[in-house]
Amino acid sequence: MDPATRYLNQLEAAQRQLLTFARELNLLYQSERGRAAELEEALRRLEESYLDMVKTLAFVVEAKDPTTRAHLDRTHDYATALAQVVDADLAADACLRYGFLLHDVGKVGVPEAILNKPGPLDEEEWLIMRSHPEMGVQMVAGIKSLGPAVEVIRSHHERWDGRGYPSGLVGEEIPLSARIFSVCDAFDAMTSDRPYRRALPFEHALEQIVGGAGTQFDPAMADAFVSIADLEALHASLHTRVAPVAHRERILIR
Ligand SMILES: [Fe+2]
């Protein structure tokens, strides 16, 4: 065999080997891709069922503490409306709304005797009560996809002037999602009856929000809250709702 033919034969053999190798590599790649997709799907389902469990816990908190009955639904709706005014991209993140619903999930670990104490809490009781944001964060730690929801849970009791808890964050150190939520949380607390006081009228509560701008609240969030279109109508509808359970189901699927 002349050298040219031998060279051509060797070249063809090398090409065949390369083709076989490429096919095997492709098969391996496809099978790995399939396995990765299966794993991703399993992880997604696991996170979904974990989230369902945590949401159920959030409603257990509501049942443990009668003063917060329907508070979750209302703060969720106020905060969703405020987020839409402040940052449309953030408002579009479904995880943010999970944070609104789950903000007090850590109260599951606070005894009912403290949650429902009619008088002021003593120092030790306050310590336990003030641990609920961090307890909540620990409870949702297994859900990696919660994103801004975790910040609402962790930081909804921080104050703009740094006198809040658990970390005493100041101003924009506080995540935006938590700055949005804390205005709505306070507004709903003020406009709801408590065993020891009547709800403040709508206008009076709004004045308190404006008055707390720059101390308790981010001034921009307080301004934006007051500017929500039809806020009074939203407030009225949230306080005349007759079927909280049905509403709750609506929240969970939208
Ligand atoms: Fe809280």
Feature tags:
67% helix; Hypothetical protein af1432; mainly alpha; 254 residues; binds fe (ii) ion; single chain; disordered C terminus
Task: Please explain how this structure is put together.
- The protein is elongated.
- The longest helix has 62 residues, at 3-64.
- Residues 243-254 have low confidence and may be disordered.
- It has a single domain, classed as Hypothetical protein af1432, CATH 1.10.3210.
- The protein has helices at residues 3-64, 71-86, 88-91, 94-102, 112-115, 123-129, 132-139, 148-155, 176-190, 202-211, 219-226, 231-239, 244-253.
- It has 254 residues and is mostly helical.
- It contains 13 helices and no strands.
- The site of fe (ii) ion has 5 residues, from loops.
The strand count comes to 0
CATH topology: the name is: Hypothetical protein af1432
The tally of helices reads 13
The molecules bound to the chains, other than polymers, are: fe (ii) ion
- Given the helix and strand composition, which structural class is it? mainly alpha
Write down the overall geometry.
Answer: elongated
Termini separation (Å)? 76 Å
The top level CATH class name: Mainly Alpha
Provide the residue-averaged pLDDT: 87
| Largest sheet entry | none
| Low-confidence parts | 243-254
Instruction: Give the CATH superfamily.
Output: Hypothetical protein af1432
Number of domains: 1
Encode the helix/strand succession as letters.
Answer: HHHHHHHHHHHHH
Rg over C-alpha atoms, rounded to the nearest angstrom: 27 Å
Strand content: under 5%
Question: What is the share of helical residues?
Answer: 55-70%
